[in-house]
Amino acid sequence: MNTKQRLSIFLLIILMAPVIKAQVYPGERWQIANEPYEMGFDMKKLENAKEYSDSISTAAVVIVKSGIIVYEWGEVDKKYMTHSIRKSFLSALYGNYVRKGIINLDKTVYELGLDDEPPLSEIERKATLRDCLKARSGIYHHALYESERMKNLKPDRHSQIPGTHWYYNNWDFNASGTAFEKLTGKKIFTAIEEEIAVPIGMEHFSSDDGWYVTGDESIHPAYPFIITAHDMARFGLLMLMKGNWNGKQLIPADWVEESTRYHSDACLYGSDGYGYMWWVAHEHNKYSHLPGVDLPEGTYSARGAGGHYIMIIPAYNLVVVHRVDTFEDNSVSSAEFGRLLKLILDAMILKV
Questions:
Q1: Does residue 18 sit within a domain?
Q2: Got the DSSP string for 195-228?
Q3: Residue 27 domain-assigned?
Q4: Residue 121 maps to which CATH number?
Q5: To pair with 39 at 20 to 30 A between CA atoms, which of 26, 151, 180, 335?
Q6: Whole-number pLDDT of residue 19
Q7: CB–CB of 16/35 below 8 Å?
């Protein structure tokens, strides 16, 4: 790179800095940048990322910087499955009720009247609701909506004491849903609509987009729903802004910080860290947050089976949403998404 090129880049950075740092919120529709370079991105490199995504099973991508869509492609307004991203939405809902004292996370499942069929043991009943949110209950009862991988990695029943061992446990996540509805008197999907979707102006989501998965394995149902990439990006932006939406605190900021910080080592699942139903980047762990891409400390993500992601990178004021049409049995591996995310981040001219 010659002196003239260096000077040009320096001047571009100086000119872009005020624009990049300005924070906006979408209104009825998302604001889309006229040109990606206005938001500090190289268009050619973004096109390279899109070209790569076309070679895998990506259905939609939305890249949001400072509240503005830098670049997007695919069916961004089509409703796709959330899979396990449902858990991160539930985690966000907990915040206000914990703050108000309606939910006490340190109550045990026994004190909350949570059990199952067959019933929990005396030791299992000592697990707290906080343990469940952190996937540390030690309750390895049969659970609904489990993948084969989850079943294969599940420890033996009664092998761990509550609070001492992390395992990505659908019993914990589903029971957390039961507890939320019991303690608040609200259905999960109604709460998402009233407390998140409407206040942040989601364009497509309604409580009718969710349903319960029931079965013989457990009395605690799973709670999946469908949602568009555009609406998912609004949720990601809400979390990026620590629960604040254009001056209104919808989720307590201290809850966002607590729920998205590192609480557990997630090496058992080939990742780095875990919070309260959020995956959390943590340096110096055995595994990275995603294969093939370096992410700054403080990054966290919601993930759904088949390659659904909400990536929240506060250090870059960035949200990246990735969707896959898993209704058609398509999937994108974590390695493939890691490569795609690296290409997106490589397109950033200035990482601020």
A1: no
A2: IIITTTT-SS--GGGB--B--SS-SS-B--BEE-
A3: no
A4: 3.40.710.10
A5: 335
A6: 46
A7: no
The crossing angle, in degrees rounded to 10, of helices 85-99 and 170-184 is: 40
- What residues in the chain have per-residue pLDDT under 70? 1-22, 352
The predicted-structure confidence for 127-169, as pLDDT tens digits, reads as follows: 999 999 999 999 999 999 999 999 999 999 999 999 999 999 9
Query: Does 36 fall in a domain?
Result: no
Quick one: which of 346, 252, 351, 242 has its CA closest to 16? Answer: 351
Of the candidates 36, 44, 61, the residue with the CA atom closest to the CA atom of residue 336: 61
- C-alpha closest to that of 88 among 208, 239, 296, 244: 239
CB atoms within 10 A of CB 16: 18
Give the chain's domain count: 1
Say how far apart CA 337 and CA 234 lie, in whole Å: 20
Distance of CA 71 to the CA centre of its chain: 20
Is the omega angle on the peptide bond into residue 296 within 30 degrees of 0, that is, cis? no
In this structure, is residue 26 part of a structural domain?
no
Q: How far is Cα of residue 285 from the mean position of the Cα atoms in its chain?
A: 20
